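Hi both,

Apologies for the delay on this - the queue was longer than expected. I finally got the zinc ion-bound model through. Below you'll find the protein sequence and the ligand SMILES exactly as submitted, and right after that the structure tokens for the full complex including the ligand.
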Amino acid sequence: MSNTSLAHPATREARGLEIYCKHSEDIALSIRRGTYSVPGCSGTVTYAVRLVPEEWCECRDFEHRSEPCKHIYATRTVLSCYPRETDGSRPPLTRPAAVGSSDTD
Ligand SMILES: [Zn+2]
């Protein structure tokens, strides 16, 4: 087992953004009881991700490190762009409005 290619946090974040760019709607619509299904970079496997009550992902990266993985970064980004859904009764189908203007929150 060689461990020569250590991934830096920035790499996870960048990969999370990549997943977000490709699958943001899939992730936003996948929520079931607070759990999201987040595709990996290959897109063939999905991982269960929760952000509440604490961030959790079922992938091995998170299991071994207990630090945010790319799936968690991707889900965070989705939630920052889509309305937060708390009760799970309605799918958060609202498309993100034009992103890029200043946030007036
Ligand atoms: Zn993960």
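Main takeaway for now: Residues 47, 57, 59, 61-62, 69, 71 surround zinc ion (CB under 6 Å).

I'll put the files on the shared drive as well.

H.
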